[in-house]
């Protein structure tokens, strides 16, 4: 089985509980203790072998999402010929958008068919005991997104208190292993195959190419609009400059007209003065 979920959900602690020994490093500070996929094994009483793969926190902000995704994909090789179950680990509490993004990222990586192999396990079961509640009551009072997720997984859900005493912990582990066996039987003992992954990977690459094409088209459209706006701005500036030039020409014409008027007025004034002097001289004679 492959353990998936966001950083701090308790994947590593769950893996140790399932293996009945400490194999994976874990902490309680919400910082990913796992940067690479790690594998642990346990031989069960019925003679079967349990293989658990712990994965990095898919949405750990310290890690590059692309590199983390590649590392998660590597878990397929570790669980060769392929995992029978993906255990989606959630910490009891509010189901956030980050958890929704995690399950969507899981689908993007491994395809929608992966939900046929998904089991949801809630950690922190002791908080339910403190509230006097059960895991099913917790789910009923949770968001529609979480209820939808449980429905997609055909109701395969369990809870565990990784800090419980040995006897109680064994009961929780047994319930989870029972769900794993039921999942295997439901899928006719078929595991998640490399062929399924390749198909999902092709779909994801196609989706990425489509997103890149759409992004390129959007960027080209933005560039086209910016160029159009720039051209329009130049046209407006040219029109405004043309208007300013016309105003300057009109002002020059107005000034010329005013100047001619002043000159004409001065000429008329001089003519009148000469005429008056001439009349005065005639009177004196």
From TrEMBL:
This protein's record includes keyword Nucleotide-binding? yes
The answer, when asked if Nucleotide-binding is one of the entry's keywords, is yes
Q: Give TM regions.
A: none
* Keyword annotations from UniProtKB, A to Z: GTP-binding, Nucleotide-binding
Which Gene3D superfamilies would you find in this protein's record?
Answer: P-loop containing nucleotide triphosphate hydrolases (3.40.50.300)
Please name the GO terms that the record assigns under molecular function: GTP binding
Q: Where is the composition biased (Basic residues)?
A: 267-285
Q: Where is the composition biased (Basic and acidic residues)?
A: 238-266
According to the record, the residues making up region (Disordered) are: 238-285
Q: Which residues form the AIG1-type G domain?
A: 1-201
- To which protein family does this belong? Belongs to the TRAFAC class TrmE-Era-EngA-EngB-Septin-like GTPase superfamily. AIG1/Toc34/Toc159-like paraseptin GTPase family. IAN subfamily.
Name of this chain's protein: AIG1-type G domain-containing protein
């Amino acid at each position: 089985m492959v353990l998936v979920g966001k950083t701090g959900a308790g994947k590593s602690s769950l893996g140790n509980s399932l293996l009945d020994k400490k194999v994976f490093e874990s902490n309680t500070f919400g910082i990913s203790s796992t940067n690479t996929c790690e594998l642990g094994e346990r031989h069960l009483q019925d003679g079967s072998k349990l293989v658990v793969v712990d994965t990095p926190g898919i949405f750990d902000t310290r890690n590059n999402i692309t590199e983390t995704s590649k590392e998660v994909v590597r878990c397929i090789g570790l669980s060769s010929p392929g995992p029978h179950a993906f255990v989606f680990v959630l910490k009891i509490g509010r189901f956030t958008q980050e958890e929704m993004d995690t399950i969507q990222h899981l689908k993007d990586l491994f395809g929608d068919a992966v939900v046929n192999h998904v089991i949801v396990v809630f950690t922190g079961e002791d908080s339910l005991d403190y509230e006097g509640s059960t895991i099913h009551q917790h789910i009923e009072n949770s968001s529609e997104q979480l209820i939808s997720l449980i429905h997609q997984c055909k109701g395969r859900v369990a809870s565990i208190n990784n800090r419980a005493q040995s006897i109680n912990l064994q009961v929780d582990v047994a319930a989870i292993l029972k769900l794993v066996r039921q999942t295997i039987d439901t899928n006719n003992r078929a595991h998640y195959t490399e062929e399924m992954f390749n198909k999902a990977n092709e779909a994801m690459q196609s989706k990425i190419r489509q997103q890149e094409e759409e992004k390129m088209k959007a960027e080209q459209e933005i560039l086209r609009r910016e160029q159009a706006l720039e051209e329009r701005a130049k046209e407006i500036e040219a029109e405004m400059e043309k208007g300013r030039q016309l105003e300057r020409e009109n002002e020059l014409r107005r000034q010329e007209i005013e100047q001619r008027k002043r000159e004409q007025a001065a000429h008329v004034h001089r003519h009148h003065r000469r005429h008056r002097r001439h009349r005065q001289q005639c009177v004196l004679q």
